[in-house]
Amino acid sequence: MSEEAVLFGEMKSLVGIVTDPPEGGGNDHRPAIILLNPGMVHRVGPGRIYVTIARKLAAMGFVVLRFDLSGIGDSAVRHDNLPFDKSAVRETQNAMDFLQATRGLGHFILMGICSGARISLQAACCDPRVIGALPINLPMPDDGEGNPDQTDRRAAYYYWRVAIHNLDSWLKFVTGRADYRQILRSLQFWAKSRLPSQRKASPESLKFETNVRLLASRGVQLAFICAADDSPLETLREAVSGVLKESRMPDDARIEIMPRTDHTFSSLSDQERLLKKICELIDAIVAASSYARFGQFDVVVSPERSGKLAPGRRIRQVASRIAGWID
Amino acid sequence: MRTVLPLYFGSPEKPLFGCYHEPRANLRKCAVVICQPIGHEYINCHRALRQLAVRLCDAGFPVFRFDYYGCGDSSGNAEEGSIPQWVEDASTAITEARRRTGLVQVCLIGLRLGGALSVMIGARRGDLESLVLWDPVVNGKSYFEGLLLLQKEMLRLRSKPSRAQKPQSYMDVLGFPFSDFLRAELEKINLLAIGRKPAKNVLVIQSDEAGKNSGFEDHLSHTEAHLQYQRFDAPPIWLPTATGSLLVPSQVLQAVVSWTCRTCS
Q: Which of B65, B69, B77, B159 to substitute to test the interface with A, most A CBs within 10 Å?
């Protein structure tokens, strides 16, 4: 495994690190993997997780590029008036151009946490070279601060995921020191969110569903990873499962929920489990897309496997179902 | 447009990552090397230190930022970090900055643990022109206790993480591993025990309430260094924020640039 610091892009102002597989460990049929900034955090990622991911995937034979979009990390600010969503997609395409020119790789898997997840989907929609996307903790379109549901959603998340397991919170509850009005509101929110008629699809949500549908129709492999403690999980599940049911995709292979994990994977055990999950999903994406593109399996076996899943069989099942669907 | 040159330097066995900001005009006679904090503080401060490098570069200083071994983009795993290694890394960065610029004078800027490391390096080498210490860690034991408190607070606000599958020989502090060895080394840090002047000119920036009564100002005034002390009502940029935003305290950056311009012509 080796790491190279690179400058690329229209103005040679984007800073990135290419992690190459060990000598002779690469495979031209394998796609390159591009990691996109998690929010404003630079290409190292929270807890340095992007470095760990890149090194692990390089050890599995993939070329990995993690870079800073302009205005983030070490990359310079753009001097045009392009909105961030557009410039981010264009710069992701610049990253693909760079790897194509320097490494001769023509297929890509995009991956990112938070806003990096959103950009991975947007870029996948715009570029046919993308064969897979792995959005992690994707912020859902109606997740903005201005949304009146947001406070209730956060409160509901806190009560059902954190306070319910906390002895102090129960003591407050039984001794009259809890915010009963807030608890009641979060209960109402939770009940309402389970009634289909109460769900309001924003234009952004509809656009998201359209994009997922577009990618599915193009055969782009999508695998969402969601931290269970991340509040928009229900919204994502609703938005994606509709599209998946409609397209007869195996939904259990598409949204991976990581229990007891927060938005930025802020503990080492979270990071360890995330890394393992990423390796499994990348294997599955590559296997499925290899089958679709070349009519053969090229299953990459990652060294660490959990006993819970039987990945080899699972990959074959998923790959054949997807290939059948594409045909 | 080349604003920064990302590169690897140092030994081929343990390459370190650095960013070299090369000024276009008004070249000064002093190179600036920035020593970053570690762990989550490194992530939270990266944006501010990058902005500081850009401002210093605009003022004519060649600036070199780098990541310690096992940190950021440098080689090595996070649990391999150690104080002697990082002190060595900072010295390697100074050598690299001198080699690239051809300048002899060096100003070292250190934030938090980077500040403590800068004092150690300066006192050991004795050849630094100037030193900027931005909320330096004066006492390693208090610093580590602060990290543990922060970790405890973080755990209070999220569901309990599942146990690691492998037995761990290190502590988890906000997603960064701290080995027992590193912890012991950190707890030994006491800048008040360093008697030698770390540089000819020293600026101490203090914005952290906790650091105001450390006695460090008094201690430095007894060395032969030409000392300036500035206090700011600025946020502790190394701490995580509720929204995940990264803070850039403009007034502190301006103060550092102004002082460096005055001190290092």
A: B159
Confidence of residue A73 (pLDDT cuts 50, 70, 90): very high
Q: Residue B144: inside a domain, yes or no? A: no
The rounded mean pLDDT for chain A is 80
Sorted by where each begins, the domain ranges of chain A are 2-142+202-326, 149-196
Per the DSSP assignment, residues forming a β-bridge with B6 are B19
B69: chain A residues, CB-CB within 8 Å:
none
Q: How far is CA B135 from CA A89, B229, B230, B231, B234, in A?
A: 38, 11, 10, 10, 11
pLDDT of residue A70: 96
CA pair distance A278, A59, nearest whole angstrom? 14
Residue A203 CA to residue A195 CA, distance in Å, equals: 20
Q: Tell me whether residue B27 is in a domain.
A: yes
Find which of B2, B3, B17, B47 to mutate to test the A interface (most A CBs within 10 Å of its CB).
B3
Tokens of B240: 């995580």
Q: Nearest 10 degrees: CA dihedral of B212, B133, B52, B88?
A: -140
% of chain A surpassing 90 pLDDT: 45
- Quick: pLDDT tens for A112-143: 999 999 999 999 999 999 999 999 998 876 54
Domains held by chain B: number? 1
Domain residues for the domain of B225 are: 5-139+195-263
Q: Is B186 domain-assigned?
A: no
Q: Which residue numbers of A have CB closer than 8 Å to B's CBs?
A: 3-7, 11-13, 15-17, 39-44, 46-49, 51, 73-74, 76, 161-162, 165, 228-229, 259-262, 264-273
Confidence of residue A108 (pLDDT cuts 50, 70, 90): very high
Task: CATH number of the domain at B23, please.
Answer: 3.40.50.1820
Query: Do A260 and B15 count as a contact with CB atoms less than 8 A apart?
Result: no
Q: E strands along chain B, which residues?
A: 5-9, 16-21, 30-35, 63-66, 105-111, 130-134, 170-173, 176-179, 201-206, 226-231
CATH architecture group of domain A2-142+202-326: 3-Layer(aba) Sandwich (3.40)
Number of neighbouring beta carbons within 10 Å of residue B50: 25
pLDDT of amino acid A318: 45
Q: Determine, yes or no, domain membership for B253.
A: yes
Percent of chain B scored above 90 by pLDDT? 78
Higher pLDDT, A233 or B23: B23
A47 and B7 within 8 Å at the Cβ level: the answer is no
Let me know the angle formed at the C-alpha of A119 by B20 and A237, rounded to the nearest 5 degrees. 140
